[in-house]
Structure to design on (467 residues):
């Protein structure tokens, strides 16, 4: 995945959302490779809210077939998904 | 806004109510505490109850969610055996609808005609000893082996389990993937490695049998997977939207019968020189039961209406489920209080409604889980 400025902005916005809305400011050393599913950061309740944030923030609807562990396992993967959907 | 039902909806409701009253009501017996009776199941199945919202092409009636709920409500009102209505609804909404919505065409063609007409019985198996409200923490595992998946694990509470032919089983293919690591399968009862525990003793819903389920090296053909690998969480949540709306219509019907019974008692039972309904304390209790019933019913209809329109309905469905289940439990307590000793005695078809209602605030997501879902939708 290229690390273009646009991609960097997406990753930062997603990171801020997860830190603020899901982790409530808790410091878990969140970075692009933090395993969000394995650590239970993203669960069934949070995923719907996260999809709503992505829709509002980036103007993209994540299709259901893309809601997979491969795309939500960490911020790097999620950033790649959003960047590809933004086209 | 229009609160009228169509003629065909009214006709379905009337026929369902008449059938339920004819077969499953009346003072001839206490209906609540008998065992599962396949003959009773077959009477409901012949009406079409087991496939109300299954497309006609697959042997169902092809009804939308609102009409489905209205028919389940009729059965709940007419049938004094709430466990029977619960079993039928659990079959339809938590086992059959996942196959309708997520099965591939060959699987649907193979299973749905039998399930939709009630010739085969479905069960949903997700709950585990360490995964109740935290359902997606389940530990039952599935691994791919050629054209099969191999399932290992244990399910602690499977409604319809003792009598089911097909089990919708949820297993994880990768625990590191959490919610997105879960996959759903349809497992036939006669699959080698599938074993059922003894029927569980329960407080209520006695005619709806339940048991544990054990899977040991259980080989399930790839074609029996529902949805994609990792989509099981979504499959389950879709089934819960059906249950939380349409299954709970049965409790709306039960509350209507309960209120009719309580009003009749209050009009005829005399104490202190007048019918007890003329005592304000009794009359107000009945007014509160009516308020609970009508409020819960409107929330339920609206949730179904939103679902039929394809609009977001998570909060509406949870509000409906919460309102119906809590109303059923509270009004069942009120009905006992109002009937006094007769309400406490087991021979008068009053006290069992409390025992049948307590589980309603537990299954399909507890009241606490529904409040969590509503809170999330509020942005909390």
């Amino acid at each position: 995945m290229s690390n273009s400025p646009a991609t960097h902005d997406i990753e930062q916005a997603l990171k801020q959302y997860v830190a603020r809305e899901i982790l409530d400011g808790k410091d878990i050393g969140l970075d692009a490779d933090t395993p969000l599913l394995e650590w239970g950061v993203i669960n069934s309740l949070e995923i719907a809210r996260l999809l709503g944030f992505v829709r509002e923030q980036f103007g993209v609807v994540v299709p259901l077939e893309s809601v997979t562990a491969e795309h939500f396992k960490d911020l790097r993967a999620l950033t790649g998904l959003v960047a590809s959907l933004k086209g | 806004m229009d609160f009228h039902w169509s003629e065909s909806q009214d006709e379905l409701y009337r026929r369902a109510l008449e059938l339920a009253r004819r077969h499953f009501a009346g003072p001839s017996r206490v209906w609540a505490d008998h065992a599962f009776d396949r003959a009773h199941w077959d009477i409901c199945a012949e009406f079409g109850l087991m496939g109300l919202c299954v497309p006609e092409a697959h042997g169902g009636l092809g009804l939308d969610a609102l009409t489905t709920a209205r028919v389940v409500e009729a059965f709940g009102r007419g049938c004094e055996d709430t466990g029977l209505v619960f079993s039928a609804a659990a079959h339809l909404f938590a086992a059959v609808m996942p196959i309708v919505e997520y099965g591939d065409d060959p699987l649907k063609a193979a299973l749905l005609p039998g399930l939709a007409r009630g010739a085969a019985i479905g069960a949903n198996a997700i709950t585990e000893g360490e995964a109740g409200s935290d359902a997606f923490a389940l530990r039952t595992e599935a691994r791919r082996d050629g054209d099969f998946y191999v399932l290992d694990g244990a399910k602690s509470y499977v409604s319809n389990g003792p009598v089911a032919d097909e089990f919708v089983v949820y297993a994880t293919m990768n625990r590191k993937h959490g919610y997105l690591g879960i996959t759903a399968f349809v497992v036939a009862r006669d699959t080698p490695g599938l074993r059922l525990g003894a029927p569980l003793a329960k407080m209520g819903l006695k005619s709806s049998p339940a048991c544990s389920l054990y899977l040991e090296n259980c080989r399930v053909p790839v074609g029996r997977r529902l949805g994609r690998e990792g989509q099981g969480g979504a499959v389950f949540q879709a089934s819960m939207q059906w249950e939380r709306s349409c299954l709970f219509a049965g409790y709306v019907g039960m509350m209507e019968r309960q209120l009719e019974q309580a009003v009749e008692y209050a009009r005829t039972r005399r104490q202190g020189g007048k019918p007890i309904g003329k005592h304000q304390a009794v009359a107000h209790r009945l007014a509160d039961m009516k308020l609970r019933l009508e409020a819960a019913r409107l929330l339920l209809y609206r949730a179904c209406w939103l679902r039929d329109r394809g609009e977001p309905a998570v909060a509406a469905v949870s509000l409906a489920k919460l309102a119906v289940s809590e109303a059923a439990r509270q009004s069942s307590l009120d009905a006992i209080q109002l009937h006094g000793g007769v309400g406490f005695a087991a021979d008068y078809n009053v006290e069992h409604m409390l025992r049948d209602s307590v589980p309603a605030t537990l299954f399909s997501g507890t009241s606490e889980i529904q409040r969590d879902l509503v809170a999330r939708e509020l942005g909390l």
